[in-house]
Every structure is written in C-alpha cells, then in structure tokens.
Design brief:
By secondary structure, this protein is mainly β. It contains no helices and eleven strands. The strands form two sheets. Strands 2, 4, 5, 6, 9, 10 and 11 form a seven-stranded mixed beta sheet that branches. Strands 1-3-8-7 form a four-stranded antiparallel beta sheet, with no helix packed on it. It is globular, with a radius of gyration of 13 Å. The protein starts with a strand and ends with a strand.
Length: 124
C-alpha cells in the first residue's frame, strides 16, 4: 500500500504560481506512473497531467499545457505540479494518484492509489 499526501494548495490571484507536492509513504513510488487530477465544484474529476515512472514522459490536458509542469524526485518519493499563469478556471481540489503500467494516464480508473486532495483557489 502507498499513502499519498498533497500539499501546497492555497488562495492566489490570477497570474500567480503555485507548486503542489505529492509525498508518498508506505513504499517507493519509483516504479509508479503518477497523475494529477482536479475536481471543481459541481464538475467531474478531470485529468490535469501525468508522468511516467522514470520521468521520461509527461502528458498534459490541453487546458493546462504550457502553463503546468509535472516533475518527480524518486529519491524523495515525491511528485510535483508546478502551476504558472493560474486562471480562475483552475480553481479546484487537486489530487495526485499512483498506478503501475498505466496505458492511458488520463484515465482515472487506471490508478490504484489516491491522495486526499489539496484546494487551489484562484481569484480574478
């Protein structure tokens, strides 16, 4: 089992930046593909981005491409989501997720472990 804990959320203004962290415990996530998802009030959970287990491949939703960057530090058992040029429509609870050999990282159902989420609020 792996436990995931997100941190770094908060209230910011449009145009600001935030870096979210997803710290894993219980076992190493060095062989897990990792994803970030978000859920805004009244909306379904949506894919934000993903990173392969070795960090060689990253994937992003079109709405965040060019603004968000995912990275990982396997030595620290942590994955990051750098969010720049934030917009009010980025307001949501952000979740990280872990899974093995995920063929389509945009599919939430393919991940086995989830964090509890961290709130990001972007004011206009």
């Amino acid at each position: 089992q792996v436990q995931l804990v997100e941190s770094g959320g908060g209230l910011v203004q449009a145009g600001d930046s935030l870096r979210l962290s997803c710290a894993a415990s219980g076992r190493t996530i060095s062989r897990d593909d990792m994803g970030w998802f978000r859920q805004a009030p009244g909306k379904e959970r949506e894919f934000v981005g993903g990173i392969s287990w070795n960090g060689n491949r990253t994937y992003y939703a079109g709405s965040v491409k060019g603004r968000f960057t995912i990275s990982r530090d396997n030595a620290k058992n942590t994955v990051y989501l750098q969010m720049n040029s934030l917009k009010p429509e980025d307001t949501a609870v952000y979740y990280c997720a872990a899974g093995s050999l995920i063929v389509d990282q945009s599919k939430a159902e393919l991940y086995n472990f989830w964090g509890q989420g961290t709130q990001v609020t972007v004011s206009s």
